[in-house]
Amino acid sequence: MSAAMDTESTYSGYSHYSGHSKKAHRQGRDRHKSPRSKDGSRSEKSVTIQTPPAEPLLGNDASRAEEGQDDNWGETTTAITGTSEHSISQEDIARISKDLEDSVGLDCKRYLGLTVAAVLGLLVFLTPIAFILLPQILWRDDLEPCGTVCEGLFISVAFKLLILLIGTWALFFRQPKADLPRVFVFRALLLVLIFLFVFSYWLFYGVRILDSKDTNYQGIVQYAVSLVDALLFIHYLAIVLLELRQLQPMFTLKVVRSTDGESRYYSLGHLSIQRAALVVLENYYRDFTVYNPALLTASKSRAAKHMAGLKVYNVDGNNASGQSRAMIAAAARRRDSSHNELYYEEADHERRVKKRRARLVVAVEEAFTHIKRLQAEEQQKAPGEMMDPREAAQAIFPSMARALQKYLRTTRQQQYHSMESILQHLSFCITNNMTPKAFLERYLNPGPTLQYDRDRWFSKQWTLVSEEAVTSGLQDGVVFVLKCLDFSLVVNVKKIPFIKLSEEFIDPKSHKFVLRLQSETSV
């Protein structure tokens, strides 16, 4: 009894439904006893850290409450709120401090790049205007009259600058999706090109116009117009390098998750390794099913059970290598019978899943039938007495809670669905008049990571491991790894082969034939 109490978590703030008060109070007493026995079993190297609410290290308060969600919510039907404690070792503290230092460095690098780009962009837009205004300010009386030609050039410069401003906003002023480990080579080259281009224009302007105080104002305005035209061509070059170059698929990437072997294929164009890794991660959260470590514990426990049944006796005083060889030989002899055990375990698991799935489907259909009956009754009442979708969800949830909890436990999905998230999904389905099948779709089939709570299952830190430089382009045979805390994604790059397509001409006359019928027929 004490061992079972040690595995439970600490909770506070219970709100009970009717009919379950005694059982919930008994479980509440068991939960309040657990921290003392849990603290007594902690090692000397562990320390309890309560993260501040401003910068949570392990998620927000809602995610911590969901991590402490009681597995018996289907039996007690209680709404649980509160916080839980997380114990981490000194090595974890050092790792967290290192991650904080790295994040500070990445933020400084990102803001420095944005500042340089903003200053350079401001200089680009002010330069043509300065070219036109400086002669008017410094030697206005000595300028030759320009007349209608200059006014037309002014309108041309204004509209070209407006077009350039809109195009720059659409191409560069975007919210960054990720912090890459290295700079974007093409963007850096464009910034350098623009800086050299504007600097050369200013140098020529200072030597040939400012020093000599050129009186040909029309030539000065045309000089500013030529600068704006060149900037428009540089913007076109930026579109080609940053957007159009990568559209044509050139490589096929096979992405394999290291824990369960789930894989997907993606086609990409000419991208650097770091930008290809970013595309892989964006598609991973959409295409891959959510990572469930509970599904991997069955095979590990089975292997541990087999190894635990082996006993090795050191009679002659042999070393540890001899013992390991003896255990491997014994495990090989027992391998012939292990596949039968695996077969019957999987068959029994499938039978239990189908059985509890059928019970869940029936319970949900009955609950939704009850909802329709309540809606029909509410339509006959006054408008002020209509039931809220949240209240309707709370009213029918106890009838399906036990069947849903058992199904989620059997399929090992209980850690992904808290009672609060289920109630929100149920109220959403009731609001939008969805069917029971639409409600069960989230629980019968594991969905992608984006379907679940972002703060709990979204990995904020990824590490890119590559033998090649991350700024180099994709090549045939390149392999890189994306690592997070629990698993890694292994990416293998293959070049799309060159396809030679030939044409074969078929003479249309070769398909013609003559059908001859005999004149005499049997009647």
Automatic annotation (TrEMBL):
Pfam families linked to this entry: Strabismus
Keyword terms: Cell membrane, Membrane, Transmembrane, Transmembrane helix
Places the protein is found: Cell membrane
Transmembrane segments: 111-133, 153-172, 184-204, 224-244
GO terms under cellular component: plasma membrane
Main location class: membrane
Name of this protein: VANG1 protein
Ranges of biased composition (kind: Polar residues): 74-86
Positions with biased composition (Basic and acidic residues): 36-45
